[in-house]
Amino acid sequence: MPGIAGEKTILGNHGAKMIAHPKATWGVTVSNPIWEEAKEVAERAGGDFLLNVSVNKRGEITGVFAGDLGQAHARGTAFVKASAMVPVAHPFDIVITTNSGYPLDLNLYQTVKGMSAAAQVVKPGGTIIVAAECRDGIPDHGRYKELLDMARSPQKLLEIINTPGFSMQDQWEAQIQALIQLKADVYLKTSYLSDEEIRQALLLPCHSIEEEVERLLKRYGPQASICVLPEGPQTIPYLEAARPLS
């Protein structure tokens, strides 16, 4: 999708039906309607040259992929799959994640990415604990906070977003958050949001990850499985049965 695409085009590409598609997820290109549409738009625009880079957690460039749009992108995704995606054999009862620290965990809006990475490998009915600073709050700018304030449950939020004709900036992030919460409980450990603000954002406050894990082990049992994603969405876990970057 060109960086100068119109607002209507972007809202359509990130619309409720597109986000809800089962293939619209991490590590999937072919059959992912969001990627397929972006690819079609780029091809129609007549792009002659692609330049993409991959980076590590220190922001260092680990690969440069340039040339033909399709070929260069395919090489880049293959490299990223090998270097930044990790297969796991089974889903977990508890997944502890981050949003990879500053500046990526600047606010709650961005932190949904860390939740989404964890959601790839959490069991239905499981729990996600995400640690993020959120120095910028929810934030107050954009319309994500406004969307969260419209509903008192993830289910209601999805009903609003899926209303025919509904379209609002940032609805995609609110929708992804709500879909995650239908699958698992989500606790937020942060230094810059009050318990009330966290609950207003439809999440559960966490004051101590250690204490929360101890409590959850009583709920799930001593044999509960735990996954830790210290780099959050910088490393993408996926179930071995899934086929990423297909």
TrEMBL record:
User: What InterPro entries does the record point to?
Assistant: LarA-like, LarA-like_C, LarA_C, SAM-dependent_MTases_sf
Where does the Lactate racemase C-terminal domain lie?
90-232
Question: A Pfam family for this UniProt protein?
Answer: LarA_C
UniProt name for this protein: Lactate racemase
Which organism is this protein's natural source?
Candidatus Hakubella thermalkaliphila
